[in-house]
Amino acid sequence: MRLASIHRYPVKSTTGHALARAEVEPWGLAGDRRHLVVDEHGAMLTARKHPRLLACVPELDGDTLVLTGPHAPPLRVVPTAGRSTVEVWRNQVELTDCGDEAAAWLSALLDRPARLAWLDDPTRRPVNPDYARDGDRVSLADAFPLLLTTTASLHRLDDWIAETAAERGEEPPTPLDMRRFRPNVVVDGVETPFDEDSWKRVRIGEVDFRVAKGCDRCVLPTIDPVTLAPGKEPTRTLARHRRWDGKVWFGVNLIPDARGVIAQGDPVTVL
Question: What is the pTM of this model?
Answer without folding.
Answer: 0.95
